[in-house]
């Protein structure tokens, strides 16, 4: 059984948690890979992530990744999201990918849109998944051209439920 | 029968010339795939021997696209492929030119120290986007200006760019050249050199493929742009046989060269140019035209290639811009930095911004490079500078350095979708002479060739394929723009 | 004390009014000095944008220095509204209520145009005489026809994108200002901004519907946003961030005119806070403006002084200008400078904004394009104005961003509820792509008890009194607010949308009308506090915006508006500024 790097496991886990593919989350040749930033941020003291819990999370994912793909989401739910230690971290990872924010107090109480936290970086903000999920772009960061808003967005991943 | 192509002949000639230099006892080394990068640059002294380049390295053939032979394909490896592409382009574009603008196969870049260059023969925007939306003169035919005509010798270079796109464009040009652009993107401010206290001047040049696309599709006037219902799509260069060079757009920055003010002329590619300031009321400015010796300080090459629908963006600087570069004579000062100056860094001079002004020392531009040139590129620079120096130790071309090359890491992204920029690498890129005041690392604001040019449109707001040129078109109904 | 003299014009405030005035006066060859309490315009907007990216709350003020980072030039911010009742006050304004004044502004070079939306509507003809026509409000001292030419010039100066053909409602007329016969047609400098896909869906789903006697229609909005390359600025790329900052300056902001004014020879002193105005009581003329300069944003005053000129222009904003004038009280002028009418600081008005939000039955894909490209102008005028305030319905293009802090709100709600993976992604898609909101800007009536005075208790870092605000909504305005809510609900039903509007009953911005709860929102519009009119007993300045009390003092900005209609004020600020300054050039400084 091969051993993935922490980054590989983090990206693979994040794909299952977010509903985006690993290639979406960590494109090859990316000059500013946000997956690297997020994993590094989680290992900073200010993120308040117990390193042992993080390692257990990645190892649990590595085992789940050996299963057939159509079983993996259910195992993420059963083994990770319901786990009292790993669950809160995993949910904060989802928030971080979608909103580019590592929220404070994630382990001890409810997190809402008004909770305190830290935007990981301006680079991370431009790669928030919430904007992909809505088929738009981060407010303040558009790569599109004048008039694009007159038409619906291009057809998207069927997972959006829209195309 | 195998015929030696001109390209091979040229390369053999180059190798022979290189070997004609000092101490050339061995054959030039063959290029090796996957070779480790050279160690960090050590400045060459006058007597050092530059290793000769592999055959075909110094060539007048503009590469049509980068060459990729990386295994595995890593960001660093592909970046190097593009950086090599940039250097090959720089050499080919600056190759000694025949009077018709084509490269001289019997000469080598810098063999005489300095030389007139191929891209001098490229067209300038004011020759293409004429008043009244008139059709440009064919390639190779120059138009005579009404201004600057009787000031200097007929073969002085005319480098011309409107600094304020809303002003009327000069309607003709001569066999010389005039420089009149002096403002940076979106009015962020002029750049003023330390030696002379004078504004840096800019020009834009477009190659044949670009010119033909504009003319062939009548994109040189507003009405033609309105009638053009397809997406603007300039020709892409490719390395496949028969493929075109592809569209190339050059932007050059020039400063006044005056040895009496401490300039070192031997360290610049120089031209005699008409420095033209058009009349304006923002700020109130009188028109003027002077003949000056100008030195190249900044050089952008934008090239559309098959591997880069978002174009490849190469940018070079003269080595003394923000610090004194290698092999400088004692007393050489940086072009845009003075360690004793108290003027705030990367801040434009106080208004009014009058291009005719000569600023006092305490207001001259104080420029710092915000994003350093990375080590791999610096090592590559040392290698190419050595090869150029090997042609002639007085070659001006050894005093230029590649800042970096920006290229799309996701070139297949749809140009009409949310990731149209194709995730450029490096994320940010600025030339300290051309994007002086917008250097930084803030997405969508700090200088990034592709992100900024992604906003370019025609006069009727259609995406214009990463060039701002098309917004200069005027109407056939007159009334300026 | 330093005395600086011999300017033709001294302008206090480097926002759009001060910038336009400085530009025109400098172009006319006058010696101009502009003083502004905030820092100057940075070489690029990278720092502002980076701060925006890293802000947890993307409020209008989020890119700009926080009050605790720039104590010497504080201002009202949105984040202080929720705690308005606390003492000591958490924010710059001291709010006495009974309702919180809910609009913010900026005190940096360029002013609030850094974060305005760019909406550039003209006042309607009837907006200039609502008292005469409807028995409510206060008439302006002139009519639409008198201001039309200046609207045109302001639209060309700023760069407004619109098609005249789509702006012909409620009696609006357009003619070429250079034609004295008023026959020649007028054209905006840029074609109208393309409407968003969602605007067309809304138009289709509304169909033919009449509300309060008005046929409801969706109109493209005139915007200070490039629809073609213009004035060396880029075309809008739909960054959907107009408020709080356009990353590429496709949206106009006043730094444009600060640059042009400086190029024309105007002098600028930033970090120079004017705190009072001096008057020579013998002549009744203003004799100087008094300032404190600072080097460090939180440091002490490093210099104090007085500047003199022939003409003085106050363009410091509708809260700061009256604060300065009232802070200038002396024994001879116990009510402050320019205040024999006792109206300085009074009649503070906003456009209270009723937010209604819904989920559409089909995807409309908001968050794409400018924050708003269309509106429903139908209820800005009509016979109902005898009964309740009119309102302009802004069609928001940002889903429930304002209403519910989305996407941050809903992502967190769904994650907390246990959603993840592909179902989270598709649920969010289904939700976000159907979100929609109206923001109805209601005309507020002037109340003399709605006022700003310099606080006697609280000062800023430089020892200058902070603004103390008393604010309420009169019944006519509340009735308009309620009508806006009713109409929004009706239009949602017409479109088959599910109404999700619900007021937070714990909010400190809660108010009632006819026993129904509403949440007060501000539009970012601050108006009325030094209003213009012919009668010196009721108005601070005349129709030329010259103080009734001091012949060499002029007042610019939305503070001169005696009534506020339903149009975003900036275009009218620009038009009235150009008009006033033209008069100064032709007659006062001749």
Quick recap of the structure?
With 163 residues, chain A is mostly helical.
Tell me what the structure shows.
The complex is a heterotrimer of chains A (163), B (481) and C (590). With 163 residues, chain A is mainly alpha-helical. Chain A has one domain. Helix content of chain A is 47%, strand content 4%. In chain A, helix 1 (6-18) packs across helix 4 and helix 4 (51-64) packs antiparallel against helix 5. The longest helix of chain A is centred in the middle third of the chain and has 14 residues, at 51-64. Chain B has helices spanning 6-19, 75-93, 125-128, 208-216, 222-227, 375-391, 449-453; strands spanning 178-179, 201-206, 248-256, 270-277, 280-281, 284-285, 288-305, 308-318, 400-408, 424-425. In chain B, the strands form two sheets. In chain B, strands 1, 2, 3, 4, 7, 8, 9 and 10 form an eight-stranded mixed sheet that branches. A two-stranded antiparallel sheet of chain B has the order 5-6. The longest helix of chain B is centred in the first third of the chain and has 19 residues, at 75-93. Chain B has one domain. Chain B is of the alpha+beta class and 481 residues long. Chain B is built from seven helices and ten strands. Chain C is of the alpha/beta class. Chain C contains twelve helices and 20 strands. In chain C, helix 1 (16-27) packs parallel to helix 6, helix 1 packs parallel to helix 12 (570-588) and helix 4 crosses helix 12 (570-588). Classes of the chains: A mainly alpha (163), B alpha+beta (481), C alpha/beta (590). The interface between A and C is large, with 57 and 60 residues.
Total tally of structural domains of chain C: 2
How many β-strand runs of chain C?
20
CATH class wording of the largest domain in chain C: Alpha Beta
Query: Care to count the β-strands of chain A?
Result: 2
Structural class of chain C: alpha/beta
Distance between the termini of chain A: 38 Å
| Protein chains sharing the most extensive interface | A-C, 57 and 60 residues
Are there runs of chain A of 5+ residues with pLDDT below 50, and where?
Answer: 157-163
Which range does the strand content of chain A fall in?
Answer: under 5%
Mean of residue pLDDT values of chain A: 93
Which outline of chain A best applies? Answer: globular
Rg calculated over all Cα atoms of chain C: 23 Å
* Main sheet attributes: strand count, strand direction, barrel closure of chain C: 7 strands, mixed
Strand order of the largest sheet of chain A: 1-2
**Helical content of chain A (DSSP H or I, runs of 4+):** 40-55%
């Amino acid at each position: 059984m091969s051993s993935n790097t922490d980054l590989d496991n983090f990206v693979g886990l994040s794909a299952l948690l977010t509903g985006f593919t690993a290639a979406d989350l960590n494109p090859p040749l990316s000059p500013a890979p946000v997956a690297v930033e997020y994993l590094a941020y989680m290992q900073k003291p200010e993120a308040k992530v117990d390193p042992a819990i993080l390692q257990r999370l990645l190892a649990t994912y590595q085992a789940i990744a050996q299963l057939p793909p159509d079983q993996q989401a259910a195992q993420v739910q059963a083994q990770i999201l319901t786990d009292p230690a790993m669950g809160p971290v995993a949910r904060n990872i989802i928030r971080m990918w979608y909103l580019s924010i590592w929220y404070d107090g994630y382990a001890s109480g409810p997190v809402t849109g008004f909770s305190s936290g830290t935007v990981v970086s301006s680079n991370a903000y431009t790669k928030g998944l919430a904007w992909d999920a809505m088929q738009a772009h981060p407010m303040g960061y558009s790569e599109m051209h004048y008039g694009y808003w007159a038409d619906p967005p291009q057809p998207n991943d069927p997972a959006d439920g829209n195309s | 029968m195998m015929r030696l192509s001109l390209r091979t002949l040229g390369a053999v000639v180059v190798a022979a010339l290189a070997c004609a230099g000092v101490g050339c006892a061995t054959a030039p080394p063959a290029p090796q795939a996957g070779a480790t990068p050279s160690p960090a640059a050590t400045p060459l002294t006058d007597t050092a021997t530059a290793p000769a380049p592999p055959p075909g390295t110094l060539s007048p053939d503009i590469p049509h696209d980068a060459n990729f032979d990386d295994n595995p394909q890593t960001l660093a490896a592909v970046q190097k492929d593009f950086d090599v592409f940039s250097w090959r382009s720089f050499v080919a574009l600056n190759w000694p030119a025949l009077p018709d603008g084509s490269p001289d196969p019997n000469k080598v870049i810098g063999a005489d120290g300095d030389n007139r260059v191929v891209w001098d023969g490229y067209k300038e925007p004011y020759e293409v986007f004429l008043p009244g939306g008139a059709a440009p003169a064919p390639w190779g035919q120059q138009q005579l200006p009404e201004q600057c005509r009787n000031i200097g010798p007929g073969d002085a270079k005319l480098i011309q760019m409107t600094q304020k796109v809303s002003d009327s464009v000069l309607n003709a040009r001569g066999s010389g050249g005039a420089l009149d652009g002096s403002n940076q993107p979106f009015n962020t401010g002029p750049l003023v050199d330390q030696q002379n206290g004078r504004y840096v001047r800019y020009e834009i040049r477009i190659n044949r493929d670009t010119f033909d696309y504009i003319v062939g599709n009548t994109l040189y006037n507003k009405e033609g742009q309105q009638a053009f219902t397809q997406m603007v799509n300039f020709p892409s260069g490719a390395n496949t046989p028969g493929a075109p060079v592809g569209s190339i757009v050059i932007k050059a920055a020039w400063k006044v060269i005056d040895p009496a003010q401490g300039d070192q002329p031997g360290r610049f590619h120089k031209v005699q140019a008409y420095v033209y300031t058009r009349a304006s009321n923002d700020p109130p400015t009188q028109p003027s035209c002077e003949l000056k010796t100008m030195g190249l300080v900044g050089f952008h090459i934008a090239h559309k290639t098959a591997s880069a629908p978002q174009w490849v963006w190469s940018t070079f600087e003269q080595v003394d811009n923000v610090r004194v570069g290698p092999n400088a004579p004692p007393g050489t000062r940086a072009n845009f930095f003075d360690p004793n100056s108290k003027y705030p860094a990367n801040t434009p001079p106080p208004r009014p911004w009058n291009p005719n002004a000569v600023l006092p020392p305490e207001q001259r531009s104080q420029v710092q490079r915000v994003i350093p040139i990375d080590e791999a590129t610096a090592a590559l620079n040392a290698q190419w500078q050595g090869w150029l120096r090997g042609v002639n130790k007085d070659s001006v071309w050894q005093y230029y350095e590649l800042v970096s090359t920006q290229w799309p890491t996701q070139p297949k992204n749809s140009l009409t979708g949310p990731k149209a920029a194709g995730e450029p690498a490096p994320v940010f890129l600025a030339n300290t002479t051309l994007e002086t005041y917008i250097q930084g690392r803030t997405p969508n604001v700090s200088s990034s060739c592709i992100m900024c040019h992604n906003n370019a449109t025609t006069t009727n707001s259609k995406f214009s394929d990463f060039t701002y040129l098309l917004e200069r078109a005027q109407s056939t109904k007159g009334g300026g723009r | 004390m330093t005395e600086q003299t011999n300017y033709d014009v001294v302008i206090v405030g480097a926002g759009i009014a001060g910038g336009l005035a400085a530009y025109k006066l400098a172009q006319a060859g006058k010696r101009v000095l502009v003083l502004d309490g905030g820092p100057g315009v940075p070489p690029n907007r990278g720092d502002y944008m980076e701060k925006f990216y890293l802000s947890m709350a993307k409020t209008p003020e989020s890119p700009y220095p926080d009050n605790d980072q720039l104590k010497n030039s504080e201002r009202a911010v949105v984040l202080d509204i929720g705690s308005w009742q606390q003492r000591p006050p958490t924010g710059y304004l001291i709010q006495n209520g009974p309702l919180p004044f809910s609009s913010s502004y900026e005190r940096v070079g360029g002013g609030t145009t850094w974060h305005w939306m760019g909406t550039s509507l003209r006042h309607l003809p009837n907006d200039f005489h609502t008292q005469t026509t409807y028995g409510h409000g206060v008439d302006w001292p002139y009519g639409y026809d008198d201001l039309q030419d200046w609207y045109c010039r302001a639209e060309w100066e700023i760069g407004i994108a619109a098609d005249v053909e789509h702006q012909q409602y409620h009696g609006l007329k357009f003619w070429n200002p250079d034609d004295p016969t008023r026959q020649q047609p007028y054209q905006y400098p840029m074609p109208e901004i393309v409407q968003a896909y969602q605007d067309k869906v809304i138009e289709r789903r509304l169909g033919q519907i009449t509300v309060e006697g008005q046929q409801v229609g969706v109109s493209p909005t005139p915007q200070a946003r490039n629809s073609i390359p213009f004035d060396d600025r880029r075309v809008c790329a739909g960054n959907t961030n107009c408020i709080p900052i356009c990353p590429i300056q496709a949206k106009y902001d006043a730094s444009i005119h600060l640059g042009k004014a400086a190029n024309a020879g105007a002098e600028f002193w930033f970090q120079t806070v004017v705190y009072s105005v001096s008057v020579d009581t013998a002549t009744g003329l203003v004799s100087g403006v008094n300032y404190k300069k600072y080097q460090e944003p939180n440091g002490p005053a490093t210099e104090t002084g007085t500047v003199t000129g022939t003409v003085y222009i106050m363009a410091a904003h509708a809260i700061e200008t009256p604060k300065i004038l009232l802070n200038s009280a002396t024994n001879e002028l116990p009510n402050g400078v320019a205040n024999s009418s006792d109206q300085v600081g009074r009649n503070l008005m906003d456009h209270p904004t009723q937010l209604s939000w819904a989920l559409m039955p089909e995807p409309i894909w908001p968050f794409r394009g400018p924050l708003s490209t269309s509106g429903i102008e139908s209820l800005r005028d009509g016979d109902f104005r005898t009964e309740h305030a009119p309102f302009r319905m802004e069609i928001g293009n940002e889903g429930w961003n304002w209403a519910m802090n989305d996407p941050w709100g809903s992502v967190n709600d769904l994650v907390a509820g246990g959603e993840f993976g592909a179902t989270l992604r598709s649920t969010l898609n289904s939700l976000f792509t159907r979100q929609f909101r109206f923001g109805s800007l209601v005309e507020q009536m002037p109340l003399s008890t709605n006022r700003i005075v310099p606080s006697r208790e609280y000062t800023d870092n430089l020892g200058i009194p902070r603004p103390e605000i008393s604010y309420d909504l009169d019944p006519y305005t509340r009735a308009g607010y309620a009508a806006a809510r009713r109409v929004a609900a009706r239009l949602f039903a017409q479109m088959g949308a599910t109404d999700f509007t619900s007021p937070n009953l714990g909010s400190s911005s809660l108010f009632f009308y006819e026993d129904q709860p509403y949440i007060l929102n501000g539009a970012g519009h601050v108006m009325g506090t030094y209003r213009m009119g012919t009668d010196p007993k009721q108005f601070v300045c005349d129709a030329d915006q010259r103080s009734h009390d001091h012949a060499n003092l002029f007042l610019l900005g939305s503070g001169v508006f005696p009534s506020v209609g339903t149009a975003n004020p900036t275009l009218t600020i620009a038009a009235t500024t150009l008009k006033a300054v033209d008069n100064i050039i032709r007659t006062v400084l001749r």
